[in-house]
Structures are given as structure tokens and as C-alpha cells.
Amino acid sequence: NAGVTQTPKFRILKIGQSMTLQCTQDMNHNYMYWYRQDPGMGLKLIYYSVGAGITDKGEVPNGYNVSRSTTEDFPLRLELAAPSQTSVYFCASSFLTGRNQPQHFGDGTRLSIL
Amino acid sequence: AQKVTQAQTEISVVEKEDVTLDCVYETRDTTYYLFWYKQPPSGELVFLIRRNSFDEQNEISGRYSWNFQKSTSSFNFTITASQVVDSAVYFCALFNAGNNRKLIWGLGTSLAVNP
């Protein structure tokens, strides 16, 4: 099992560019999440999904979009990159509601917008 | 409202000292779950423990122990005989049924264990 895999690990974007952060999990988890972590801060939820075809906004969704066409994949898209989106992005997954299951995290994507 | 407070922003200890990281939570739900995660300097997030609101029994795992007290809404984490490898940011998180299946995260406590 690879667990939760995020690509790329690092990326530098220019203001206004777009990109997609990939996230895939092989644990058959139905719940998936995207967080951002700003320097010295905790995690903030961007979007989450309770299953294929279902997504919902988290705490800081503006400037991002997601899709969940399969159980395994949960890509996060930045349409018009802004310096405020410079952060480390974590994808996570969990089984069922997450009540009895921890969230498993990917290794993160470090994104810089210049 | 649901909230997790980790009042200690940074802690610095010398190796072999015991250290306790505090976590205080707020929730109106009677059924909830509490988590601790570790984030070492390499950046990944590592799950440490999960505890549900009906189980107040303290837990020990090697040098790690957790003290869950509903009366004070606290879920504190103690590292005994700390080691340099324990240096990391530690996050406490809360999950409850009325929270749309989202974890509420504390801001983390940065622990530095010096040789």
C-alpha cells in the first residue's frame, strides 16, 4: 500500500498561472480532504469529499476547485494563482465518517506563488 | 461552537526531561473524538492516537501517554524521558458528529528537545 500520494512535492508558479495538485489513495477510503498549512500555523480545510461525485467546501475554499470522479483521486485546482496561496498543501483520506478512523496524510506539496 | 486550544506555542526541553503538551477542547456534542498528530521537521503528518468521548481511560504507548479528562475538557499528551527525535510540532484535533465530518485542529505546539 502506498497510502496517500501527492504530486508534485514542490512547485513554483507565477501569479495568474493555474495548476492541479494531484492526490490519490489506495486504501479505498471514501473520505478525502485538502488542507493548507501556512508557515507556523495549523491546518485549514479547503475542500473535502465524502465519496465519489460529492464534494463540499471547507474553511478556506476561495480560489480553489476540486473534483472527485473516482474513489481514489481527489485533485485540487488553482485557477488563478495568487501570492496568498503560497503554502504547503496536504491531502488526507479516512474510512467512513472518520469517527473511528484517523486521517492518513500525504507528504504534502510545497507551493510558492511568485 | 467547536474549538481546540493548544495554549503552548513553543516548548523547549533538555533531553530526558518529561514534557506535557496541553490540549483543551470545546464542543456541545456528547459523542466526539480527539486526536493527536505529530509533524516532524520533514513535514509529514503522523497519526499518534485517537480517543472517543466515552473512554476516559488514560493510555500509555511506550514513552507517550495521554490524559483525557472530560471534566476539564482536556486531552493532554506527555512524553516521558524526551529524546531529540521527539522534536516536532504536535497537533491536537477534535471530531464530532455535528461537525460535517471535519476535524477541528489546534494551532499546534512546537516542541524542541535539545541534547
Structural class of chain A: mainly beta
**Fraction of residues in helix of chain A:** under 10%
Low-pLDDT stretches of chain B are: none
What's the end-to-end separation of chain B, in Å?
41 Å
- Could you give the count of β-strands of chain A? 11
Radius of gyration of chain A: 13 Å
Order of helices and strands of chain B: EEEEEEEEEEEE
> Whole-Å distance between the termini of chain A?
36 Å
β-strand percent of chain A reads: over 45%
Oligomer description: heterodimer
Taken in chain order, the helices and strands of chain A follow as EEEEEEEEEEE
Q: Tell me the greatest interface.
A: A-B, 25 and 19 residues
Number of helices of chain B: 0
Q: Which strand-content bin applies to the residues of chain B?
A: over 45%
Mean pLDDT of chain A: 91
Radius of gyration of chain B: 14 Å
List keywords for this structure.
heterodimer; A: 114 residues; mainly beta; seven-stranded mixed β-sheet; globular; B: 115 residues; six-stranded mixed β-sheet; four-stranded antiparallel β-sheet
Task: Summarize the structure in words.
- The complex is a heterodimer of chains A (114) and B (115).
- Chain A is 0% helix and 49% strand.
- Chain A contains no helices and 11 strands.
- In chain A, a hairpin with a 5-residue loop joins strand 4 (31-37) and strand 5 (43-51).
- Chain A is globular.
- The model of chain A has no long low-confidence stretch (mean pLDDT 91).
- Helix content of chain B is 0%, strand content 53%.
- Chain B starts with a strand and ends with a strand.
- Chains A and B meet through strand 5, strand 9 and strand 10 of A and strand 6 of B.
What are the SSEs and their pairings?
The complex is a heterodimer of chains A (114) and B (115).
Chain A: E1 4-7, E2 10-13, E3 19-25, E4 31-37, E5 43-51, E6 54-57, E7 64-66, E8 76-78, E9 87-94, E10 104-105, E11 109-113
Parallel strand pairs in A: 2-11
Antiparallel strand pairs in A: 1-3, 3-8, 4-5, 4-9, 5-6, 7-8, 9-10, 9-11
Chain B: E1 3-5, E2 10-14, E3 19-21, E4 24-26, E5 32-39, E6 46-52, E7 59-61, E8 64-69, E9 74-79, E10 88-96, E11 104-105, E12 109-114
Parallel strand pairs in B: 2-12
Antiparallel strand pairs in B: 1-4, 3-9, 5-6, 5-10, 7-8, 8-9, 10-11, 10-12
